[in-house]
């Protein structure tokens, strides 16, 4: 219990998609209702709710900061601390927790989503070519380590035909990986938690275009959406705080 402390959840947000932080706001509501913290606030680096405005509303002496990011990179290591550290005083303490994507249980979350889908549609998991599609970075490729680690964890279990980590902004590109799955049943799961343009437009468009190409003569492409609204994430956020104590 952290009933005297505050929890600040920080997401990427979006300047162009108004509801990009919707999943994070929902998770915050669940955590707030649990009574585990005196205060629970949400802020985003882009768009609303503004992270500095959210921080300034908190009154607790101890603030636990959990980045709602799936990779540990520039935003979690530099951007967030650079924003918040100048605003603390001698009477306040910031505890920076690891980003949600570093949590080992993410691989189990991905596996459960895939197996639930298989049960729903009567699909043999062994027939699935699984693509875990992350954001990636055109400017700094190769830094999406957490996604590769989670994909490798699923691959070693041999429950699916094959599992690939693929990206929207760096190699291996999702378009190429999806094309390589032709002749197999494809399951596309977005390794994305922000409901920005990638999750709401780019990835769905990619799947639609592949379905049009395949027509009715190729095995189907299953769209499993993205993981940002998964019901397991509030507990994982709490676990990140507990692990940092």
Present the secondary structure layout.
Layout: E1 2-13, H1 22-34, E2 37-46, H2 51-57, E3 62-67, H3 74-84, E4 93-96, H4 106-121, E5 128-134, H5 145-157, E6 162-167, H6 174-180, E7 185-190, H7 197-214, E8 221-226, H8 233-243
Helix pairs in contact: 1-8, 4-5
CATH topology of the largest domain: Rossmann fold
Query: What series of H and E elements makes up the topology?
Result: EHEHEHEHEHEHEHEH
Identify the strand order in the major beta sheet: 2-1-3-4
Our count of helices gives: 8
- What characteristic shape results from the CA principal axes? elongated
The overall strand count is 8
Largest sheet: 4 strands, parallel
CATH class of the largest domain: Alpha Beta
Mean pLDDT: 94
Low-confidence spans: none
